Task: structure prediction
Amino acid sequence: MNILVTPMSSVIDILLPVSFMAIFGLILAFTLVLANRRLAIFEDPKIDEVEELLPHANCGACGTAGCRAFAEKLVNGELQPSACTVNSLEMNQLIANFLGVELGNQEKRVARLACAGGNHVARRHGDYQGINSCRAATLVSGGGKGCTWGCLGYGDCADSCDFDAIVMDEHLLPQVTEDLCTACGDCVEICPRDLFSIHPASHHLWIACKNLQKGEAAEEECLVACNACGRCAMDAPNNLISINNNLAVIDYSKNKFASKIAIERCPTGAIVWLEEGVHKGPNAVKIVRKSALRVE
Amino acid sequence: MKLSALFSGNTFQHGVHPHDYKGLTRHLPIRRLPFAPELILPLSQHAGKASTPLVKPGEEVVRGQPIAVADGFVSVPLHAPATGRVRSLQLMPSARGPKTMSLILQVYQGSSQKELYDHPHDLRQLSADEIIQAVQEAGMVGLGGAAFPTHVKMKPPAEQPVDTIIANGCECEPYLTCDHRLMLEQPDNLIQGLHLMQRALGVERAIIGIEDNKLDAAQLLQDYVSNDPTIAVKVVKTKYPQGAEKMLIKSVLNREVPPGSLPSAVGVSVFNVGTLTQIGELLPHGRGVIERVVTVSGDGVQHPGNYLVPVGTPVEFLLKQAGVVDAAHEVILGGPMMGMSIAALDVPVTKAMSGMVVLKKPEPDTERGKEQPCIRCGYCVEACPMQLNPSMLGMLATSADYTGMQENYHLNDCFECGSCSYVCPSNIPLVQYFRIAKSINRDRQETAQK
Result:
């Protein structure tokens, strides 16, 4: 008896789960098909293709959260291809042709440092020892630099730059290579003293100082500080330059009036002309010292 | 009572036991110091908005006279610590780094240390709100180091009624003994201040928490309040950071403050004994905070001691009085665990500065070694009084994942006590990494708000 029953039940033992799984699988597949039809979101295939043409740096220089978001905005026509400052001109032209839009004329923008106080001109009162970072140094009694607005020189900005556009020079002051700079703004975010800002490269006139002290108090800490003498503001056309809170400030909406006259007035050289290098006026203090000042 | 509390014995979990070096100054009575020729008085010596100056350069002021008024509720006024002439109002270096607006007071040489400005109150007549106002007018801030305006803490949110006041007499930082001396020398003022606080907050119960390395002070205060049923003295275990608000509440009352909330969430208000002593001393006369006790200690000074110093005295002057040795290498304001080394000696003593530790350059063989990679030993996890995971936080910091530190590992619960850095066998400056992370997160939040 037992011998007869066993093969029959074993066939059912196999068939039952197999058919169950098959039906269950079919139901799930059907649900998936349904979901795919009903819940489908149309995504423009152009977005993928445009994204392929972008540099994948995800740097944020264009003002969006990354290359994908930028590609979406390009396809929607909200931005122009030239807003990507990392891509080469040819690639941007390719995107413009592909989408049939204008390339746009995004002006070249660069990061600018509002300090010129390297360790050969700016005083240090204390010797900071600890993590080699400006952030960390600022948190320990300001890092020991006499001018508490100035660059600390531990190079957080150079570390944060993905494009090697910032290097620290021999006086421990960051130097921006304008050709490499994509204006992504990483250095602006990392600097604990808020010394970096993004400017169009056509802003040639530049105040390389943030010291809010006046006269000797400012110059005591740093040879190239703005001492708020006001000579630059005095004959600036159309109030291009004004003294605000003991610091010269340029109103860049009047940038077309900017000329090298302002740098000729400056007695310390805090105002510079940035065009193919740094130009100072003839009256600016001559910096002869090469080595770092002693910590005192 | 929970079983764990039975065995823990008046303390919190974790923490460290640094050598306390209090023997240098613990036996030395509080000594008054002469006036420095010029006092530097920053308008912002407290958390909150800077005060607004009342005097102009050139004006003469007498000792104790208000020279700046509070700007809003979270702000306190400032009083002249000495008789003299206001020289100027200008940017001056501060211990924290940035230059801040300060009044420079030229002290008349030979002027009296007697307070010339008085505005007496009859304390029995004052209502709770009037006491709080008087505390603000006294320019009172947390003298333990936080510098938070005291009167703000006296107004806890209405939905969180306070049932206990704790006077914090732990002074768990190594070297510091100023609170210890105050408890020994001015117990009457301390109790007076505590009574005022009880009245202002409408609280019956007050507990003075003292570490068991200051049993003489505990005994003295115990005798003092023996016939006062509302005040109790509780001895807690000597351990760092016993003096941190949340730790002390756990040790004294076995209540745990939830993360991200204030002690009033568990019905407690904690005040430093130095603050209470000054309240008890100043309020009857209607005077302001113009001087404080500062412990000057460490192997870099010739005469360590507890000095009564006018606020605004330049650190350099104070060091000259205490006699600095030539080999002095580092000056730390506050205690060595949570204090901060200063970059220049022209910064002034402020209301919240409890001590100054001057150290010689360490011998090469005792010097802290180079930073090594984390070996996951877990010492820091065992040391963290907030039960965080400093090891993981440190690793995230090296990969600059500051958002992850905050969201997944409760970075903001860290109050930077330094226990993790203290025990780390790899010499990783963990707390410094956390400070960087916090500062970057703060910046990002500010940019996001804009």
